[in-house]
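Moderator note: this is an archived Q&A kept for reference. The question asked for a predicted structure of one protein chain; the sequence and the answer are reproduced below.
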Amino acid sequence: MTTTHRSLPRAFVATLLLSCCGVFLQAVTAGLFVNQDGRDSWVSVHGVIADVTWASALVAAVIGIARVRRSRPSLAYGAAALFVLALVQTGLGHLITDKGMDGLLVVHVPLAVVLFGLATWLLIGVARAHRVLPDVIDPYVDDAAEPLMLANRR
């Protein structure tokens, strides 16, 4: 069973997808330079992707607050949270690489996990808003049959 929300603005979806892809690519590039020779080039790539990620998240947040907030407030505010956290994460990364403040890795890595989870949640929300995913995935309800009321289940 799916909901019938108005479709999301294309610019919101595109910039949100770009920023979420950036979050996922950050994990890949971080894995490529941890404890490896020639890591400086991957650190640079990691930094460029970080900048693209927070910039696209900013655009998604602005569009979300302006145009999506009334119909899908969780997505709008989630996009805003993604921007703030991505910006903080980028700042921490620059402090680690440029200033040698390696102690901040204790915050940087767990925040990356939070960002990864938030990006995944936002992608699921976009898919649900576009009726790609049902609101509730219930193995006891057959899509071809009429959904059963919870009270009628035995």
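Archived answer notes: The CA atoms of residues 26 and 46 lie 6 Å apart.
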